[in-house]
Amino acid sequence: MKNLFLILFCAVQIQLTAQLKLPSIFSDNMVLQAQKEINIWGWASAGENISVEFRKQSKSIIANSNGEWIVKLSPENYGGPDDLKIADEENERIFKNVLVGEVWVCSGQSNMNMPLGGWGRVNNYKVEIKNANYPKIRLYTVPLTLSEKPEQFVDAEPWNICTPETLENFSAVAYFYGRELFTKLNVPIGLIHVSKGGTPIESWMSASSLKEFPEFNSDIKFVKEGSVTKFKTINDSYKKSYSQWFESIKENDPGFTSEPAWFDSSYNFDDWLTMEIPNVWEDQGLPKYDGVVWFKKVLNLPPSWIDQNLKICLGPVEDKDITYYNGIKIGEQKSKNLLSIYELPKELNTKSENVLTVRIHDDYGNGGIWGRENELYLENELGEKITLVGEWKYKPALQFDDNNLKVPERVLIDRKPTILFNGMISPITNFAARGFIWYQGESNGSRPEQYKLLFPKMISSWRNYWNDPEMPYYFVQLANYKAKSKKPSNSGWQYIRESQNSVLDLPNTGMAVTIDIGHPTDVHPKNKQEVGRRLALPALVKTYGIENLEYSGPSLENFEIINGEVLLSFKHAEGLKTPGNEKLVGFELAGQDSIFHKVDAKIQGDKVILKSDIVINPVAVRYGWAFNPDCNLYNSSNLPALPFRTDEW
To answer: Exposed site from 44, 108, 340, 411, fewest CB < 10 Å?
Structure first.
């Protein structure tokens, strides 16, 4: 009996090892790259004969001693749908509705990850999603996967056809980029989305590409010595400690412990301070404040709204809220960036004057009720709305640092060097693609000099993994962000933008400048349509050869100083202008003292002339040099000028 069991066990094992295994990126509805050699690969039993059939091609290969195999199909032209057949000696897989077109790998952090709907809610997102019927655009998402070593396989959902049902939670930048290509080229488009919010560039780089950066050695060692189980254990431990800490915050919150509690309808809040909402509280009198703040607003219902079912929307909050209406809890939101929408049943709406109380808990970074004005409202059954924009009362309750109640420290494993390359990029490097688009840099904002070295290294590394040393690589320069500075600024994202700008010296690169479409309090600007359009311009010109199309805003080419005047020459300078012929702003001059002053500027043909009564002998120029600069130089294609500086101070 024992021997019989052993025979059956071995037979089952042989059957399992003999099964044909393919990467998840092969599925129905996929797009294969046109006009490039097509790799088809997978795993089988050692020595197994594998055959691949596609269109008129039929090729076979023997799996090696590790059971690995790869078949290289000759380049194919655009078109489809076709079937792709892959078989070993006992199993056969047939993939339906396969197209041949243009495949792009779309990667980065949260601004690439940001979906059209969901937490993203890009401009006009409901209409954009409703109209997203593009059967020749196909969508594939690589899920978050952490690994201690470069993987060959990632477990992902199949390719989707672009429809309103499949698009809502897909990358907005990737979609708008792909839509722009499809509109101009009229060929199938395949978008491989592989991103994760809050991640630095080194997470997306291989160990070999980081050899020149010894500062990462200890973290790389941590990753190599880890495992999926270890990473999960660390995350689970953090979640437990955070949950305990979160409850302790409630126990120490005077808003809960006072008599009466601050949410109680009998509580008098006349002495509370006033804040304009929506806004982050760091810009409204609470700088560097991580903790709990309570907000209140009196709502006066029109007579016709009384005894109606109402709905209230607070927009998104940073980071979490508990909301009360006349002292009764109506909802709680524990996820950042999602809308806090709560129902107010008619039983609660029996009088004209009502008090809304919102408790905001912010772990770190910006805090408050900060979303768009049109997402802050009270709504009745007829869809009529009363805005909640304006003055709110507020009172700080608990600042974590002041009370020795700091947020538990967590190991941000997905931000460790190599870990996302290993788990998410490595498994798809065999899949032929035309190029890459990239939106990242925010998480490296404090390390611009290092980023200047890392970024080109990553580009060349990815190109090598795809076996194409000049594979197109197009990326987004960081947008304007944070409050505007009244004086010239010398710290912030402008240095990351400069590092990104320097990468344009590499062949087949291009940059979408977004210095004019950011938001002072939202690191995730909503106009992703324009980001995708601008990102597609260099691809259309450089990769696809479309003529008579401008792909870049004005870029500094030369500057001269003549008798105290500065003469700036630009590339991509046809039709230099400002919107509505408004005054040209954004330029600063400095003399030998290295102190910059905002100066008057004027356009003269394809040049800009600067002169200052303060800086008599200028030696350096800056433009758009701030986190959130006032700058308005464009060319005739309505593309903004690239921020720059001529000094190295």
So the answer is: 411
